[in-house]
Specification:
Rossmann fold, alpha/beta, AB_hydrolase_fold, 8 strands, eight-stranded mixed sheet, binds ligand LVPVRBMU, menaquinone biosynthesis, 9 helices, lyase, about 270 residues, Epox_hydrolase-like
């Protein structure tokens, strides 16, 4: 279904009853990311959102509308629309940056927080400026050469090298999900909520008191380093390094990922 949220038409899908679990995909993803998990998480009310600029959610012309804080405000409205006081929140990569932002700005709305291969942004303005420049160049590339050419480049980044081990059918599934996005949405997502663009939340991690689980794949050295460092600041946090997985743990170790999430949430059911 699509619902109007702060002037943006959001595509949201809900499955099941029970405790709500809000699921936030990564950059170039969509609600399709989470469909393989419907059978595993039948005990929960799954709320799947196409993040602004992705999937069947609007792609506004103004990059400012994609800002992380505004996207978090949208999540607050989406929970309100479904009369949900709070939810367990799981975010993958960009979706994890949004999930963390939501937990910081709306702590009363987050029952537990699960961050897969994510970060609180970049620490210094210098790093942020450099990243914003890179992301702007990438955004212009997407607009100039189109989504297909971008996906070809994106899926071949070293960060996703371990996905080459996956069956070709699974690789094609991921590619199709990426291809089902539009150039304006992806470009403005980078401009508005990219890693360099979002505020650095490193200095606010100590205030995140909700039970938090950090997940990283053992082959994803960069994001495991980030998770190890985040753990030092988060007061109520566990970390799991998942064996034989890279950045997209949920793709490369689906069963293990499903079990880890269920176990973490079940231990904290209300
Ligand atoms: C390449 C880097 O950053 C990007 C990597 C992962 C994030 C993501 O959401 C990827 C999802 C996917 O394609 O499976 C993305 C983001 O957080 O927006 C980052 O731009 C890097 O080295 O930091």
């Amino acid at each position: 279904m699509n619902i109007f949220v702060n002037g943006v038409s959001y595509h949201v899908e809900r499955y099941g009853d029970g405790e709500p679990l809000l699921l936030l995909h990564g950059f170039t993803g969509s609600v399709e990311t989470w469909k393989p998990f419907l059978p595993y998480w039948r005990d929960y009310q799954l709320v799947l959102v196409d993040i602004i600029g992705h999937g069947l959610t609007d792609s506004p012309n103004d990059p400012a509308r994609y800002e992380m804080e505004k996207a978090a405000d949208d999540l607050d409205e989406i929970l309100r629309y479904f009369h949900l006081q709070d939810a367990h929140v799981l975010g993958y990569s960009m979706g994890g940056r949004l999930a963390l932002t939501f937990a910081i700005l709306y702590p009363h709305r987050v029952r537990t927080l699960i961050l897969e291969s994510s970060s609180p942004g970049l620490k210094t303005m210098q790093e942020r400026r450099e990243r914003m420049k890179r992301d702007e160049a990438l955004a212009e590339e997407i607009e100039q050469y189109g989504v297909t050419a971008f996906v070809e480049k994106w899926e071949n980044m070293p960060l996703f090298a371990s996905q080459k081990r996956l069956p070709l059918s699974v690789q094609q599934q991921i590619r199709n999900e990426r291809l089902n996005n539009n150039a304006l949405g992806l470009a403005n997502s980078l401009r508005g909520m990219g890693t360099g663009r979002q505020p650095s939340f490193w200095n606010r991690l100590f205030k995140v008191n909700v039970p938090t689980l950090l997940l990283c794949g053992e082959w994803d050295q960069k994001f495991c380093r980030i998770a190890e460092e985040m753990k030092e600041y988060l007061p109520n946090c566990e970390m799991i390094k998942v064996p034989e997985a890279g950045h997209a743990i949920h793709v490369e170790q689906r069963e293990i990922f499903a079990k880890i999430v269920s176990r973490f949430i079940t231990r904290r059911r209300v």
